[in-house]
Amino acid sequence: MLADHDLVVVIDFGAQYAQLIARRVREAGVYSEIMPHSASAERILERKPAAIILSGGPQSVYAENSPHIHPAIFDAGVPVMGICYGFQEMAAAMGGVVAKTGLSEFGRTPVEVDEAGALLEGCTGATVWMSHGDSVTSAPEGFTPLAHTAGAAVAAYENTTKRMAGVQWHPEVLHSDIGQQVIENFLVKIAGCSQDWQASSIVDEAVAAVKKKVGSKKVLCALSGGVDSMVAAAIVQKAIGDQLTCVYVDHGLQRKGESDQVEKDFVEITGAKLVVKDVSDRFLAKLAGVIDPEAKRKAIGNEFIRVFEDTAREIADADGIDFLVQGTLYPDVVESGGGEGAANIKSHHNVGGLPEDMQFQLIEPLRTLFKDEVRAAGMQLGLPEKLVYRHPFPGPGLGIRIIGEVTRERLDILREADFIAREELTKAGLDRSIWQFPVVLLADVRSVGVQGDGRTYGHPIVLRPVTSEDAMTADWGRLPYEVLEKMSTRITNEVREVNRVVVDITSKPPATIEWE
Ligand SMILES: Nc1ncnc2c1ncn2[C@@H]1O[C@H](COP(=O)(O)OP(=O)(O)OP(=O)(O)O)[C@@H](O)[C@H]1O
Ligand SMILES: O=c1[nH]c(=O)c2[nH+]cn([C@@H]3O[C@H](COP(=O)(O)O)[C@@H](O)[C@H]3O)c2[nH]1
Ligand SMILES: NC(=O)CC[C@H](N)C(=O)O
Ligand SMILES: [Mg+2]
């Protein structure tokens, strides 16, 4: 398949962003795949890579048992780029010094360019996205240090003779200026790759793969009304038509108006079969007394599957139903610890929250993709823009936006506050500039207020507007003060139990988008 194209191998050291690196390389017109750091040097070199990129990772290169690449990789004459942990790994392997300096940097960081070289050509300074605790304090001999930040004495280096280079920051994330440029500079100027690869249609490949896998069997699709499952369903419907039945689970953790909209919009647009399961009692019973976020996620993930199993039994013919379609995306997989050696950040209900005894074979046509790639596929499939650009909403819904136990009463409070905040966002015309807008109830926190000349002892609501491209990194959304004021006034006036509204101004990292 790749006989005519250069291949860039991304070595995954347990990064949150390995797939994102591969994707940026593909965006630069060079085909790219990921391999685990545990792959042997022979296995990697057998692929005849035109270049290798070493990803970031949670470990420290000098620590015992930290992951390493075989030194043969650095001697093979193949161009290598290191990113974050990979940058530190390359520095250490080539004779530089890596240390914990006590100067961590997380999120937006200004970088000063000392000498642009080939890697940073044309750049004098930039704002980049950092996420590190260790630093390269001295570049290896023969490597030119190119840049520094307040917390990283050497933030970039290159050795054009050896065709090696690296950066401490994350050029693969959207929030780094000159990110794509740095990757392209490495690929083209340092490694000499040809930019002749084009992503063939994601949709056509996925349709063919589903046809082959399913044959004439019946398939169930978990449909949430969100973009991902709608695109997944549309792909499967294109492949196997009315062998498909969609199931929407109304678990009582939805936002106001959500359930009606799913029934109306989806069936109208696709004409697919839809079963709606009204099971809020079941979910609330499973969530009673549960406070730990991971326990909540697992309880919800389990119950989802139990409902799908019940539905499969109800509608199956003699053959039964073996396949379950989910709109899982790559961020769901990697955050659930599904990347090679990746840390478990949170168990997404559809990946890490699935029960161990699940009988279904999963069909997840979007599992290696990111939200904006899915949106592009949705537009290509002819789905309406209004639905394709809906804000994402997590499967566990308001259940992970109530910090504390989930009860009906608390859900009602949050549902109202969320509705007001979203209504004001839409009125202000900001739906497209804000990527997602969680509204969170701090149910176990109370504070004193004065309302109508009397004392109140109510709950705070947190507004969490964010900008992002793919949920892997995010910045806090700068809502205009007038809009925030309107939200705050309306929420405290209209939702009796709330007497305080606060805004979350943290990027991801260090925070995540959701609070649990
Ligand atoms: N209420 C629900 N009923 C049935 N399936 C669901 C429900 N909520 C989530 N799912 C399943 O879990 C998957 C992951 O949920 P997620 O919220 O990430 O995706 P989505 O809802 O399809 O898209 P979006 O990210 O835009 O909300 C969905 O694609 C869908 O397959
Ligand atoms: O379907 C889902 N099931 C889950 O369990 C889940 N947890 C987080 N999210 C969504 O994923 C994106 C990244 O979220 P975080 O920054 O909070 O990890 C954001 O868009 C979140 O809303 C989920 N979606
Ligand atoms: N994001 C990373 O790759 C981090 C690398 C290393 N764990 C550090 O903290 O410096
Ligand atoms: Mg959703």
From TrEMBL:
Sample GO molecular function, one term: GMP synthase activity
Q: Which domain of life is it from?
A: Bacteria
A GO cellular component term found in this entry reads:
cytosol
User: Pfam family example for this protein?
Assistant: GATase
Keywords carried by this UniProt record: ATP-binding, Glutamine amidotransferase, GMP biosynthesis, Ligase, Nucleotide-binding, Purine biosynthesis
Q: Which SUPFAM superfamilies does the UniProt entry name for this protein?
A: Adenine nucleotide alpha hydrolases-like, Class I glutamine amidotransferase-like, GMP synthetase C-terminal dimerisation domain
Q: What does this protein do, in the record's words?
A: Catalyzes the synthesis of GMP from XMP.
In this chain, ATP is annotated as bound at S224, G225, G226, V227, D228, S229, M230
User: What is its pathway?
Assistant: Purine metabolism; GMP biosynthesis; GMP from XMP (L-Gln route): step 1/1
Ranges of residues in domain GMPS ATP-PPase:
197-390
Source organism per UniProt: Luteococcus japonicus LSP_Lj1
Q: Which reaction does it catalyse?
A: XMP + L-glutamine + ATP + H2O = GMP + L-glutamate + AMP + diphosphate + 2 H(+)
The record's section on InterPro entries has: Class_I_gatase-like (IPR029062), GATASE (IPR017926), GMP_synth_C (IPR001674), GMP_synth_GATase (IPR004739), GMP_synthase (IPR022955), GMPS_ATP_PPase_dom (IPR025777), NAD/GMP_synthase (IPR022310), Rossmann-like_a/b/a_fold (IPR014729)
Q: What is its EC number?
A: 6.3.5.2
* Record text on subunit structure and interactions: Homodimer.
Catalytic site residues?
A: C84 (nucleophile), H170, E172
Supply the name of the protein. GMP synthase [glutamine-hydrolyzing]
